[in-house]
Design goal:
InterPro entries: DUF8083 (IPR058396). It comes from Sinomonas terricola. This is DUF8083 domain-containing protein. It holds the Pfam family DUF8083. The protein has about 280 residues and is α+β, with helices and mostly antiparallel strands. It has two domains: about 120 residues, no CATH class; about 140 residues, no CATH class. The chain has eleven helices and seven strands. A five-stranded antiparallel β-sheet has the order 4-1-7-6-5. A two-stranded antiparallel sheet has the order 2-3. The longest helix has 20 residues. It is globular.
């Protein structure tokens, strides 16, 4: 491969739910419409969001949180209808901050997230959360690899877009209707509950199903590989996960083990990059 690579950043992938405009409250609709890009396409929007995030991290203000003016909205047309996925950076940053505060050493957490900045951001979170009686997060993010549970929602026959950038695969996006995605998740939960009740994926899929149930039935679900696509494409993880679950349901431990080995050989090296110097 040729060309100059961008500065190294964590490989991030996203699972997004796009909803019809009627799924949003009046206040949410204003925010959704304000976040739509005025020019360019998805790639320009992804770059703008990533650049803004990096700027907050390395900025001199000491405040890593996004302001009200840094929200973005992605759109997707399915069967002639436009669906929307707001970035919800303020809400998602609030959740991420809670995780850091509860898991990181206190001194490190206060250094990364100054108290004054946290208080200002909490005011933003409270204001945005009040816009809806049932605020929901439309986007899930994963660093250094894609959770195997996400692949359950998709199949090889689903519409797939491969975005290339010269010799590199910039991203791969797979889209499934909400109804198909949640039915696939429920089917997998039912089979794993019987065949492998102690498997960690069962808990992950149960949580994923509960999350999907929060959204409008006319929604669509998108798996966006992000830059990790350049390291795994072409990828058969959706097929391998489905075969693994089917083998477990049928009591075929050999087939299940073979499917897992294929997944592990593909994804464990990527996850190990998180610990690389």
């Amino acid at each position: 491969m040729s060309g100059t690579r961008r500065p190294s950043r964590p490989l991030s992938s996203h699972l997004r739910v796009y909803e019809p405009i009627e799924a949003f409250s009046a206040a949410e609709r204003e925010r959704v419409e304000a976040g739509l890009p005025h020019a360019g396409g998805r790639e320009e929007l992804d770059t703008a969001e990533s650049t803004a995030a990096l700027g907050r991290v390395i900025g001199e203000t000491g405040d890593p949180f996004p302001g009200d003016g840094t929200e973005f909205t992605r759109s997707l047309t399915v069967n002639g209808k436009v669906l929307y996925c707001p970035s919800q950076l303020v809400l998602r940053s609030g959740l991420a901050a809670e995780s850091v505060i509860s898991t990181a050493p206190r001194i490190l957490a206060e250094l990364m997230l100054p108290e004054e900045a946290r208080e200002r951001h909490q005011a933003r979170v409270d204001r945005i959360a009040a816009e809806s009686a049932s605020p929901r997060i439309n986007t899930r993010e994963s660093l250094w690899g894609i959770p195997f549970s996400w692949f359950v929602l998709f199949q090889e026959s689903d519409p797939t877009e491969v975005v290339e950038d010269g010799d590199h695969v910039r991203t791969v996006r797979i889209v499934a209707p909400w109804g198909k995605a949640i039915n696939r998740a429920r089917f997998a939960v039912a089979n794993l509950a019987l065949a492998a009740p102690d498997m960690s994926m069962l808990d992950e899929l149960t949580s994923l199903t509960e999350w999907l149930e929060e959204f409008h039935p006319d929604s669509a679900v998108e798996l966006d590989y992000g830059r990790v696509a350049d390291r795994v494409f072409p990828d058969e993880s959706c097929l391998d996960v489905r075969l693994g679950i089917e083998c477990l349901a049928e009591g075929d431990m050999t087939g299940a083990a073979a499917a897992y080995r294929r997944l592990a050989s593909r994804w464990i090296p990527i996850r190990q990059l998180a610990r690389a110097s």
